[in-house]
Design a protein that fits this description.
By secondary structure, the chain is α/β, with parallel strands linked by helices. The chain contains twelve helices and ten strands. The longest helix is centred in the C-terminal third of the chain and has 23 residues.
């Protein structure tokens, strides 16, 4: 079962009024948990690898772990379309390495540059990627927060300008666009009442009809997950994510891809902390990574149902 690009999946998602979950991976247990969820939910799947994940786990290991998971899915009798996507590639070189290394989709994030420079860099990646049959996601606007190499302060965050979004897509040729409407990276997304700029999302939709949009920093940071983490020695009090009802609303209004990373990290860490707390003599990795993998599976299933992509494989 070969990897697919995002193009056809996004067309179906846009018409069907749902989004596809894009889940970041760093090790075997996270990959296994995500695929187990996709098989149970019969959902299309976007597996994301950041530049930090490539450095930590190595490109070659991740590729083979994902390929093995796809083979296991096929053996189960469930045909799951899988996109392997580079998350937040910050220059042409890393995008090229991933394209040449077997990824079916890449993100070039040149959002730190002025508009015309962002367009130029994105266009360069698009031309190379399309020549290899690979799709490209770009970003316009700046999300606050920290994730791997991405670090933007709240004062430097900017919402996506709808008119600039139209110009950017027309000139860059990108296949999807990550927009900033109030989400942010990390576990602390809102100090006050959570709010997303759905009016801005609609303006962008009006100018770019039928064009797939992407939400980064869209973890919900569910209270039940943070409670487990904090109960067993964690220190993430007061964390707040994007409410699940807002995620569901975005998925119905032209957002075709929704990124999830923080929720996976919290779920995994909480179960490991719990295992160590309850049995401090334990040193068998299988005894704490197994429950962590199960927690990943349940979080991903929950996300797929909220986004509406369950049953859409």
């Amino acid at each position: 079962m070969p990897l697919v690009t995002s193009k056809e999946l996004f067309q179906k998602a846009y018409k069907g009024g749902y989004a596809i979950g894009a889940f970041n991976v760093n090790n075997m247990e996270i990959i296994q948990g995500i695929f187990e969820a996709a098989i149970e939910e019969k959902s299309p799947l976007i597996i994301q690898v950041s530049s930090g994940a490539r450095k930590y786990a190595r490109h070659e290991y991740l590729i083979h772990l994902i390929q093995a998971s796809m083979e296991m899915a096929e053996a189960s009798g469930v045909s799951i379309p899988v996109v392997l996507h580079l998350d937040h590639g910050d220059d042409f070189d890393i995008c090229k390495k991933c394209i040449d290394g077997g990824f079916s989709s890449v993100m070039i994030d040149a959002s730190k540059h002025p508009l015309q420079e962002n367009i130029r860099i994105t266009r360069e990646v698009v031309e190379y990627a399309h020549s290899k049959g690979v799709t490209v996601e770009a970003e316009l606007g700046k999300l606050a927060g920290v994730e791997d190499e991405v670090n933007v302060s709240a004062k430097d965050a900017t919402y996506t300008d709808p008119q600039e979004a139209k110009e950017f897509v027309d000139k860059s040729g990108c296949d999807s666009l990550a927009i900033a409407i109030g989400t942010s990276h990390g576990a602390y997304k809102f100090k006050g009442e959570p709010k997303l700029a759905f009016d801005r999302l609609q303006q962008i939709q009006d100018l770019l009809p039928n064009f797939p949009l992407v939400l980064h920093g869209a973890s919900s940071v569910p209270q039940d997950l943070t409670d487990i983490c904090n109960k067993y020695g964690g220190a993430i009090p007061g964390s707040r994510g994007v409410p699940e009802e807002m995620i569901a609303q975005a998925a119905k209004t032209g957002v075709c891809k929704i990124n999830v990373d923080t929720d996976l990290r919290i779920a995994l860490t909480g179960q490991i902390r719990k295992a160590f707390f309850e049995n401090p003599a334990e040193f068998d990795p299988r005894k704490y990574l197994g429950p962590a993998r199960d927690a990943i599976r349940e979080v991903v299933k929950r996300k797929m149902r909220i986004m509406g992509c369950s049953g859409k494989a």
